[in-house]
Specification:
This protein has 210 residues and is mainly α. It contains eight helices and four strands; from the N terminus they run ααβαβαβαβααα. It has helices at 3-16, 35-40, 60-72, 82-93, 104-120, 135-151, 168-183, 188-193; strands at residues 58-59, 79-80, 101-102, 125-126. It is elongated.
Length: 210
């Protein structure tokens, strides 16, 4: 948890501990894969999960709206190529649910990869040339790989994206990536391959670029 996140949790705990009820309601919107982190750091918020609401799978129409509306509201407006959206992005996102529904967490992870990359490239139409090599499967596996590496990083060692480290923890990470990727119906190897624009290096047993 960063210092900024720790301050937020502390401030929320202070609000929750007020002797007199405050005339406000606080609604926290948290992506599902961050819920565990918030729970682990929220000992001072006993009612945090008193009335939780989970966002269920999205239809293709709902997913389309979630993708294009934030882009349209950007200044200047941005958009996604229709062919890319309908022929690749939506089908790949919906692969886990027989093509009918899309997991909102997966959608947000993928869009969080596409949008900043487009902004950095000063691209206002996200087309096939901006789409990561390996598509949705690669983005999700890459995200999962990076999250596990951060969680299991050895003290004092940089979080270098190694495909397979020689030590036991490295093998454990590789196994977790493969098992978790299988449960998400993505290809861990595709995620490790990444895309040409991503700054990724495989590491040798010594933890240095190989």
């Amino acid at each position: 948890m960063t210092a900024r996140h720790a301050r937020l949790v502390s401030q929320l705990a202070t609000l929750a501990g007020q002797p007199q009820p405050l005339p406000v309601r606080v609604v926290l919107v948290v992506r599902e894969d961050f819920v565990g982190r918030l729970t682990a750091q929220a000992a001072g918020l006993p009612d945090l999960w008193k009335t939780p609401v989970s966002l269920g799978p999205l239809s293709r129409l709902q997913a389309t709206q979630a993708i294009v509306q934030p882009l349209a509201g950007h200044n200047p407006p941005m958009s996604v190529d229709t062919a890319l959206l309908e022929q690749r992005l939506l089908p790949e996102l919906a692969a886990e649910h027989q093509g009918q529904f899309i997991h909102p967490t997966h959608l947000q992870i993928v869009c969080n990869r596409l949008y900043p990359a487009a902004l950095r490239a000063n691209v206002h139409l996200i087309g096939a040339e901006s789409y990561p090599v390996g598509g949705v499967a690669a983005v999700l596996a890459d995200y999962l790989d990076g999250t596990l590496r951060e969680a299991f990083a050895e003290p004092g060692q940089p979080a270098c994206p190694c495909s397979v480290a020689a030590d036991g923890i490295g093998r454990r990470r590789a196994g977790l990536v493969t098992a978790a990727a299988a449960s998400l119906a993505v290809d861990a190897e595709a995620g490790r391959a990444g895309d040409p624009g991503a700054a990724r290096q495989d590491c040798g047993a010594a933890g240095k670029p190989g």
